[in-house]
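Here's my example:
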Amino acid sequence: MHRPVRDGQASGMSEQRADVQGLSDVDLIVYEAVATLGQDGSAAEADRLQTMTDLPEEDVWQALNHLVQANHVHATDHGYTLGPHDWSVWQ
C-alpha cells in the first residue's frame, strides 16, 4: 500500500491548500471521517478511517494521499489531523 507523505515532504508543498472543489466524493468522505474522529483533538488512524467509511483500503490511502498533498489533512506520527481550514456555511 502507498502511505501518504509526511507533511512537508511533497515536492513543492507549501502552506497553501488546493481548492476544495477539486476533491472527489471519496476525498470528502475521508476528510469528514478525519474531522469526526478528531473532534476530541486526537489523530485519526488509517484503520479506523477505513472501518468508519467502509471504503476499500486502497481508496482510503489514495484519498489520504490527495488530502495530505492538497494540505487539507496532515499526516502525524499518531494518524491524521485536519490541516488549516476556513470553510464556512453561509446563512
About this structure: Strands lie at 73-76, 79-82.
